[in-house]
Each structure stands twice: as structure tokens, then as C-alpha cells.
Amino acid sequence: MTGFSSLRRRGLLAGLAGLGLARAAPAQAGQQAGRRHEWHFVAAEREARLLGPEGPASRIWSYTDGLLPVMRIRQGDSIRAVLENRLPEHTTIHWHGVRGPNAMDGVQYVTQPPVEPGQSFTYDLTPPDTGTFFLHPHCNEPGQVGRGLAAVLVVEGDEAEPADADIVLAVKDWRLAGDGAWLPFVTPQGAGRAGTFGTRRAVNGRPDFSATVPAHGDVRLRLLNLDATRTLTPRVEGAEAVVIATDGNALLPPAPLEGWRVGAAMRLDLLLRAPAAGGTVTLHDDFSRTPWPIARLTAAPSTRPPRPFAPRGLRPGRVPRADLARAERLPFAFSASLGLPGTAPGDIAGLPPEDPFAQVLLDSLCTGRQTFWAINKSTWPGGAQGDHRHLPPPLAELKAGRSYIFELHNTTPHPHPIHLHGHTFEVLSLSRQEGLPRFLADTVLLQPRERAEIAFVAAPGNWMFHCHVLEHLETGMMGWLRIG
Ligand code: C2O
Ligand code: CU
Questions:
Q1: Atom 3 of ligand 1, nearest CA residue
Q2: How many Å is the maximal CA-CA distance in the chain?
Q3: What class does CATH assign to 328-483?
């Protein structure tokens, strides 16, 4: 287990080690590809001071003693991870973004039985791709992830030229009262709109993040949005910066940061050039009216010389590319609906935005009809308990090995980051985010009323397809694909 960031120790940087630099990851240099990692995650309640070292303690749920642990492996390494459940409710581990075997995907009732309290489950997988990923349960996601149950997975080996520092920035708010107790993770107002926001912003679990980086060094920032609902608009002040990876996949050539938004569950890797010693760099989130500093970096003396910033980009990955000319097109509408699970709900997408919309959704909650989000007018049953025992029919049946283009349409006035399990797709178009290059992703942010096209080669299995606003997936906006 390593800290949130690691510094690649080139000899010339060794002198920085004593300066409070980001912690170094052990056993990086000389590590052979194909190593086997044995992890033991004990999902349990633990204590953490989320409101700061002086603040009250909160009862978090976590996999390890550390908050939001960062697991680092090399491409080609295999993982054997035992999940031991000491929580009061069932849980699983989903390996978000990892193109693993379906049986290891961690979806209760779909790919495995839920791991009941007191039980264990062993995950065996060899992640095929490099990149920045994360682990989270697929049960009661607002409550379990909301209390902190998640981990970061970094698969190294994609750098054509090693960065001088590699820093993980996992953004996730906490829903805490002033005394450190949890506030409700699901609210009718939030579930029916853009989601329930946290009360305290945090990076890597803490109220703020700062690190020292080598002057004139190339700094890789792995930005993960682990929040239940928030969208980030990152901006770098004080340094030149480019996007080098989207959801862990190389972006070639690297692109300017302008215009990228990071919805819930999405990741963006940035490369920036640190300033001269003493200089500072701030990564801001510009999404809200007042920019919020995600990370503050200070340059410490190094022997790296000043030189032009001309990033080469990462090595291209191994994701199979769809045959666009022969791909089959399938439409998916993401809508709000009223009705009981399993029935054909009335589509209320035609309503004027905001208030009347929210009012109808609120009414549906008050009358106990808790399912109100839908994909192709089909709602996921089970409500907030994440009970998937009665699987609805698949949204679509696809053929493994064939190319598909999904035409996604958000008919609602709220953003929906849409995630497909087990696949990495290419985002071909976004109707309201023009100007972005084509990129690879496992989650695509649909702005209100936006249309998008994504293309991929189907992989065999039963794969979930859902919005990653946690309250939305728990209240209907989830389905699955049968690929055989
Ligand atoms: Cu992170 Cu079903 O997803
Ligand atoms: Cu959504």
C-alpha cells in the first residue's frame, strides 16, 4: 500500500527526499512485470478525523486502516484480492474501468452473490490496461461510498518518459455535520435533481492537499472524481499543463486542459511543468462560482534544467477499436420517469426544466414510487437498497467481438455521467462539448439535453450500464447488457 503520491527517484532528485515531498512508492524501480499482488481488504467501520486533525472523529467505512488507499501495480501484474466483509450489510468490489473478466466485476446478483457480513470473496484478475482506476462497492453506493469505501488503483507502465512526480488527487466530498456525524446520503431533493452534494469538500479524504514538487520537473497529476455527484472543471494556474489521459487511457496527442469536465467517476491525468524553486502551482476546480483549490504545489530546488514544455504523451494502449463503418447503432435515452419498477413509465422529459420537473419527481417520492430515472424507459428496480435480485430484462443483447455505436441522449435538465462496465469506448461526438478531440473513456458526461456517440467492441458478459451519480443509479438509471 502506498501513499497518495509517489516520486520517481531519479538519482538527481534524491536530495529532495528530505523536503517533505510526496511519499515515494516502494519497490518501483526494477520491479518485474508479472508480479502477483496479494491484498486483504477488510471492509469495516473505522475512525477518521475528516474535518481536520483538531476536529471530531467520524465513523468511516474503509477497506484498510488508511483512508482511500492507493494500490499501485505494473501492467502485467496479477491481483488476488480477498474482500472480508465486517460491515453490517452486504457489499462487493467493482473494479471501475478495468476490462476484467465478467465474473470479477463485482456486481451483486449479476456477476456474483453479494458478500454477506462475516463472509469473504476473492477477486482474481490481471488488469490488461495501464491507467488510473478505482475500486468501489456496487451495493448501497450512496451509503457505502459515502462513508469512504473506495480505493484507487494505478496500473503503471504507460510513460514513454517517466514523470518526475506522480500525484494522486481523489476528489470526494463528505456529507458531515459539524460534530462529525453523517448527514443523509440520499435526499428526495438531490435524488430527483443533480444529486445530493457533500457539505465538506475533500481531496484524498482531507480538507486540503498540498505537496512539494521538483522545480522544472514534469509532474503527473492523476485526478479522480470519486464524488457521488459533483462535476469538476479543472484549471491549472502557475504552470503549463496538458491532458495526457482520459479515464486512464492515453490521449494522443496530449490536449490543452480547456473544455474538459470531469463528471462523477471520471478521471483525467494531467502533465504539468513545475516552475522554478519557490514557485507555486494551483489546480483549481472552476465548476462552482468560487474556484476551489484541489491541490497546491510548491517547487523545491532540483537539478532539472529549465527547458521548453513539449510533452510527448503516454504510450498508446491496447484497447480494441470499433470498426466504425460496420458498427451497429443502438439508441439509448436517459430520462426521468414516473411509475413502478418494471412497468412502462410515462416519460416526463417534455416538461420545462427545473421546478416543475423536480416537483413531479418529489411527488413520486412522497407517494412511495421511488423509481424515477430510466434508460430507454426502463427503470432499475430495487430502490436505495441496491437489491438487484429480480433482474429486469437486459437493455440490449449484443454479440461479442462485434462493433457498436451507442447513440446516447440525455432528455433531462440534469447532467448524467454514463458508465459502461467491462469496456473502454471511444467518445466520437458530444453535442454540447464541441472542440474536444476524440478520446477513450469508460464514463461519459452527458450535459443536460446532450447527445453523444460512443463506439466499442463488445466483450462477453453481463455488463452494467448506468449513470454514476450514485443516487440516480439507485433510483432507476441503471440497466445491463447481455453480450454473448
Ligand atoms: Cu463505478 Cu457500476 O460503477
Ligand atoms: Cu444521472
A1: 96
A2: 66
A3: mainly beta
- Locate the domains of the chain by residue range: 1-315, 328-483
In ligand 1, which atom is closest to the CA atom of 473? 2
pLDDT at 371: 56
Q: Rounded to an integer, what distance in angstroms lies between the CA atom of residue 286 and that of residue 288?
A: 6
Write out the three cell numbers for 64: 484498510
pTM for the model stands at: 0.88
pLDDT at 5 over 60: no
Indicate which ligand has the atom closest to the C-alpha of 133.
1
Q: What is the pLDDT of residue 208?
A: 92
CB 451 within 8 A of CB 431: yes
Taking the centre of ligand 2 as the mean of its atom positions, its distance from the CA of residue 411, in whole angstroms, is 11
Task: Kindly list the protein residues whose Cβ atom lies closer than 6 A to any atom of ligand 1.
Answer: 94, 96, 136, 138, 265, 419, 421, 464, 466, 468
* Confidence (pLDDT) at 474: 86
> How far, in Å, is the centroid of ligand 1 from the Cα of 375?
16
Cβ distance 465 to 395 under 8 Å?
Answer: yes
The answer for 20, left when phi > 0, alpha when psi is -120 to 50, beta otherwise, is: left
Ligand nearest to the CA of 105: 1
10 Å CB burial of residue 147 (0-12, 13-18, 19+) is: buried
Could you tell me the three cell numbers for 89? 450489510
160 burial via Cβ count (<10 Å: 0-12, 13-18, 19+): exposed
Looking at CATH, the fold of the domain delimited by 1-315 is given as Immunoglobulin-like (2.60.40)
| Residue 14 falls in which region: left (phi positive, over 0), alpha (psi -120 to 50) or beta | alpha
Residue type, position 117, single letter: P
- Output the residue whose Cα is nearest ligand 1's atom 1: 96
Q: Tell me: the pLDDT tens digits for 21-48?
A: 333 334 444 445 599 999 999 999 999 9
Instruction: Assess whether the region 1-315 and the region 328-483 belong to the same CATH fold.
Output: yes
